[in-house]
Every structure is written in C-alpha cells, then in structure tokens.
Amino acid sequence: MADRDISGGSGKGAEAGALVVCVGQVVTDHTFRVDEVEPPPSKTTARSYAMSVGGMAANAAIAVARLGGRAVFWGRVGRDEAGEELRHALEAEGVDASGLVMAEGARTPLSAVIVDKMGERSIVTYRGERLPTDPSALPLERLEEAGCVLCDPRWPEAAELAFRRARELGVPSAMDAEKSEERLLRQLVPLTDHAIFAKTGLTIFAPGVPPEEGLARALKAGPLKLAAVTLGEKGTLWLAPGMGEVGRRPAFPVDATNTTGAGDVFHGAFALAIAEGQELEDALRFASAAGALRARDGRTPDRATLEELLAGATDVPPLRVRRKA
Ligand SMILES: Nc1ncnc2c1ncn2[C@@H]1O[C@H](COP(=O)(O)OP(=O)(O)OP(=O)(O)O)[C@@H](O)[C@H]1O
Ligand SMILES: [Mg+2]
After folding, report:
1. What is the 3-state secondary structure of 117-176?
2. Residue 219 and residue 228: Cα distance in Å, rounded?
3. Which residue from 52, 230, 254 has its CB within 8 A of the most atoms of ligand 1, so it is best to mutate?
4. Span from the CA of 217 to the centroid of ligand 2 (angstroms)
5. 3-class SS at 307?
6. What's residue 313's pLDDT?
7. In angstroms, what is the span from residue 261 Cα to ligand 1's centroid?
8. Residue 5's pLDDT is what?
9. Which end of the chain lies in a sparser environment, N or C, as judged by fewer CB atoms within 10 Å?
10. Are strands 19-24 and 148-151 parallel, antiparallel or unpaired?
11. 231 lines ligand 1 (CB under 6 A)
C-alpha cells in the first residue's frame, strides 16, 4: 500500500502482552488534506494525499499492538487488491489477521477522509458490497486466552457471537458504540461490559435526552460495568453502577493536527488497559492519552510516548457532573 502513513509501528507487541480480540470494521482510508472544505458545488485541490488502514476495530487493533499488547483482528473484506493490501498492512503492524475473512466477489470498504487546516475531519464511507454476514467460521477459541474483546457495530453478527461467548467465558468486553442503526445499538449494547459511545451513537441510542440520561439508560440495558461517551477535546463522560452522578474524564490538551481515528485508538487503548487489569478510571485516563496523541500526531502512539504523556501530565482532577433529574 504505497503512501500509507501507518509507519512508526515496530510490528512488536506480537510476542508478549495482554491479548485483545478486535471485531468489526476495516476500510482503506483515502485521506486528503485541504485548506478549506468548500460548500458544494466546489473544486478543491488537496495539499496532500495518503492511503492507510482505517475502520474502528482495525485502528483499535493496531493501537493494541503499538501499545504493547497482542492484537487479533476479525473482520471482512473482498478478495480484491484493496483487501490484500489491508491484510498486509495489518500484519505489518503485528496484528494477527488470520481471522480476516476475504470473500470472493465481495468489495472491500473504503473511506474518503477530508482533513482541514484545524485537523478536523469529514468522512464518507462506502461499506463495501456482498460481505458475508455469517460469523460461524471465526476461531472463537481465541477468546479463551483473551484479556478483552472489543467490537464495533459494523459486523453485528460477529459482534453478537463474540460478546455472548466472552460473557460465557467471563472474558471482559468493550464496544465502540459508534453511529449506526438504532436496532444494532439496542441489540449489542446490553451484551457488552463497557459500552463507550461516540456522541452520535449515544444520540441514536437515547434520542432527545441529555448525555447523562443516555448513559444512565445504557447502564440499565444490561449487566454493564461502564457506559461512557467520548466528546473529542471535551473529554469523556462516564457512568458505572453505584455512581450517583456522571464522571468526566477531561481530555489531555494537545494541538490537534488530525482527529481521524482518535476514537478508534481510544477504544483500542481502553480494551488493552482492561485486558491488563487496570481499574476503570485508570483505563479511561490511559485511553484518553492515546486518543489525544493520535489527534496531535495523526498517528497511533507507541507505549513509551503514551507513558511519557501520562507521567508528565499535571492531571486535571476529574469533575463530577450532576445528572439532570
Ligand atoms: N482534539 C483532541 N484533543 C485531545 N483529546 C482528543 C481530541 N480528539 C479526541 N481526543 C480524545 O479521544 C477521545 C475520542 O475522540 P472522539 O470523541 O473525537 O471520537 P469519535 O467521535 O469516535 O471519532 P473517530 O471515531 O472518528 O475517531 C476523546 O474522548 C478524547 O479523550
Ligand atoms: Mg469513533
């Protein structure tokens, strides 16, 4: 994959570390940097162009590997050139992609990512065609050695299977509850231990109510240990059973150059922290640092860079936000 900006990963992390199984989306990101995003009709010249691995679960798997964990990725692509490139790119990052389904006659998903001068992104995603839905060939036995399973909603049949099996095994799970069909969020959120929504995902799950109430509803949907929502540079709101009010994990202040994938990296780092046995608040802090570094550098950090940020941070005390009655 020429021009891919996924360099910086050493490919290490495959030989040691806690195991995280990441299930869901992998796409080819075509990233255009522009000065301004003009309203249509318009023609804009890109300052730069790059092709890289994208997709929530795939970016999360790469984050797990770079941060010193062992990452397994389960997802679907077509048996086409783009699918082959994605498989190689994942493997080059040290991700075990042997569970990547490459389907004959299917088309691999891709995204057009437009990044403006402020580092803010707009994304158009083509979700592919004829990708198989049946997850029964996945090597579910890998879950027995996993410290956490992380699923996004883009292969819901696989997410449901993995969440149910993880729960049977007592393996912790987490969900990237991104923007998707309401019925999928309703189906999957109760099956996970840690539901971490993107802002739009929470609005779809609990329409017309403030985020604090949305999180309370998510927590009641099943035996969840955490419901949270990420709000970019505004940080993360979170609620766990027994908490009277919603907590806020502030974001680490950084100068963002490219916010694409910050949420994906946040989720991968969170899942790794849980797999390592970190407490909830520590895991949220760890994940916030990973998301901030991704937004700052436009690339997924390694463990040393993340630890440096954590060690140097004069931490903002977590605020308690009163839940509106
Ligand atoms: N500009 C930023 N500065 C500092 N931290 C950030 C910034 N953007 C994101 N983060 C961190 O990453 C987390 C996830 O980001 P965000 O809420 O933007 O995810 P998202 O909406 O799911 O986006 P995507 O999935 O495209 O990455 C935030 O809660 C925050 O901790
Ligand atoms: Mg996201």
Report:
1. CCCCEEEEEECCECCCCCCCCCCHHHHHHCCEEEECCCCHHHHHHHHHHHHHHCCCEEEE
2. 9
3. 230
4. 20
5. helix
6. 76
7. 8
8. 41
9. C
10. parallel
11. yes
Q: Distance from the CA of 276 to the center of ligand 2, in angstroms? A: 22
- CB of residue 264 inside a 6 A radius of ligand 1: yes
Query: Beta strand 246-249 with 319-321: parallel, antiparallel or unpaired?
Result: antiparallel
In angstroms, rounded to a whole number, what is the distance separating the alpha carbons of residues 191 and 206?
17
Q: Of 266, 288, 316, which is best to mutate to test ligand 1, by the most ligand atoms within 8 angstroms of its C-beta?
A: 266
Beta bridge partners of 75: 24, 100
Per-residue pLDDT tens over the stretch 171-185: 999 999 999 999 999
Low-confidence ranges of the chain (pLDDT < 50): 1-15, 319-325
- Residues making up the chain, counted from first to last: 325
Q: Is 111 left (phi over 0), alpha (psi -120 to 50) or beta?
A: beta
Q: Which two three-digit tokens encode residue 62? A: 């790469």
User: Using an 8 Å Cβ cutoff, are 295 and 256 in contact?
Assistant: yes
Question: Which has the closest alpha carbon to 292: 312, 274, 322?
Answer: 312
- Position 200 scores a pLDDT of 98
pTM score of the predicted model: 0.92
Q: How far is CA 297 from CA 90, 256, 305, in A?
A: 20, 7, 11
Q: Which token pair is 28? A: 């080819």
Contact 226, 239 (CB under 8 A): yes
Q: What is the per-residue pLDDT for 324?
A: 42
What letters, b where the CB count within 10 A reaches 16 and e where it falls short, cover 217-242? Answer: ebbebbebbbbbbbbbeebbbbbbee
Mean pLDDT of the chain: 92
Among 233, 249, 254, 306, say which to mutate for ligand 1: greatest number of ligand atoms within 8 Å of CB: 233
